[in-house]
Please model this.
Amino acid sequence: MTNRKKGPRGSKKNILSEQVLYIFAGEPFSKFNYKQIASRLGFNDPITRNLVKQLMQELVSDGALEQERRGKYKLNPGYIGAHSQNRTIEGMVDMKQTGKAYIITPELDEDVFISANNTGHALHKDRVKVFLFPRRKGRKLEGQIMEVMERGIRQFVGKLEVSGKYAFLVPDSSSITVDLFIPLNELKGGENGDKAIATITEWPKHSKNPFGKVIDLLGKPGDNDVEMKSILASLDYPLRFPQKVLEETEKIPSTLSSGDLKGRKDFRDITTFTIDPLDAKDFDDALSIRKRSGETWEVGIHIADVSHYVEPDSPLDHEAYRRGTSVYLADRVIPMLPEKLSNMVCSLRPREEKLTFSAVFQIDNQAKVLDKWFGKTIISSNERFTYEQVQETIETGKGKYKEEILKLNELAKILRSTRFENGSLAFHSTEVRFELDENKKPIKAFIKEQKEANHLVEEFMLLANRKVAEHIARPEKKEKPKTFIYRIHDEPNPEKLANMADFVQQLGYKMSIGSRKSITNSINNLFEKVKGTSEQNLIETIAVRTMAKAEYSTQNIGHYGLSFKYYSHFTSPIRRYPDLMVHRLLFHYLSNGSSMNATEYEEMCQHTSLMERRATEAERESIKFKQVEFLEDKIGQGFVGTITGVSKWGIFVELLENHCEGMVPLQSMKDDYYFLDEDNYRVVGHKHKQVYQLGDIVNVEVKKVDLSKKQMEFVLSE
Model:
């Protein structure tokens, strides 16, 4: 911990001192005499016991321990704070339902373990300062939380338990391991069993529970609307727009003036259309195409000019930044911008004049970009297509604007092929969707398919995003690149990659991980080989877990998954705040503006990356709720499923028919005692060696469904 006065650091005496302090730090509120400490250290003879006694006296002199009557010692609470130089780190709390925690920190290559009695008043996702204990040989790094620097969660969603004299809010999340004590005068009319949102008002030093107050009542558990609002609130996402934001939005004109058109290129007479899902209302992007001279085509990617309407530092802008992104739940969209903007004024609706920010490319028949132009435009979309309509035109060669659609598809296929030749990874994302009745109850689950129509739109959006990033990162004049927002994706962790290669080899597949090109070729070839096999889900799941997470940053490191050196997000400013930032920066630089403050924009990148992760979590939670709701009346029914995960508690199974996922607890598997083989993604029977591995097909029955916890329990069947 620190240099002792009685000898050089690293001496046996100094090491013994640290071992003694480790015991006290591990139980900071306990008291021990020297015999108890000696016993814990394995010293039972009088000589070494006396050495421990002498050492503990020295630690009292140093201020590390306090001596009480009857020969008892305890840790001096002020010692850790005073002697923490080079022994402290900052990080985020990943709290487990058992009360223990791990600290995730960029300062170390490993997480720091915190035992339940050393977490103090820290909660899940808090940013904390941690004191590191001396590492014991062969053990993981451990520590004690010294200080909560910032609460990661500011509002807590749960069920009220109200008795005659007191009340508690029991949080929905298993990661929040304490209940909030709510004084009866802070219930805001809430009753026993109600779902509510509460905040912490104080946490007295010696109190086990924080004190709080109810700030909003949601309703009764199990109600669809209540549960969806609960999901949003638990992730600190606002449930409604502030009044001042709505008032500002109402002042925005719904029609264009002559001043709005000033300085814009006019694309109103050029064939232009949108392609979106059937239920979409916020049309961010439109495509235009026209023949130029020779074998050249002009393709325009026209994006809603949200920056024209949302002024920087306005209440509307602050609220959009706060939200960071629109959230797509199983039964609704929670927009980043009020509906007047997202669905009306900014949305590129057919046969309406709209303001856009465009990326226009001159492209030859080999899909090579010959020239580019970025700037403000005005368009009038000729048609609003669904993906299904465009897919039908691609397959049949018939339909409105068939020549334009077929040419765009031809170019998109070349762009896509070139992208994969250059090392882009061919991940197949599966999106679970539900068909809902008039009461929002799920009556059918299905996988949203990606077809050529989806790929057509995707390739031109990727082209625009890539070329916008290149334009700033690689200026034509030999200037220093200006501050910009990049969408970055880091290289996979080499250890995880090696583990994946070892694992797939056991299944009979080979991976070469010697170079970046060999890695991407191996993964893409692997995806192709396992397509349609029982191992497909297993391989794709492991590949996703091996990859890093994409995020926003002003520090460009490229996009590994797409194999792009420069990449940004330009094409969805209605639903993503980073795209709005990109629009503002790009226009500022096109107008010869100077480089902006990188530190300020990096902070904004970190915030929007966080909100993106929360939105993804909310979407998953809403899908989970619908899956549980779908199986609520199917107790005892049998299904076929695929093992999608393994843990020391059980195996996770996704049902093939409806894509619902539940757990088979290991304790319910009575034929043997099963243990987790984590490295090989499987559980193994101790006696009979029966193996259940990721990707295996199994028969299960629905045993129990808990709507409030969004949990499904299965049992294996014949």
Residues 1-10 have pLDDT under 50 and may be disordered. The longest helix spans residues 598-631.
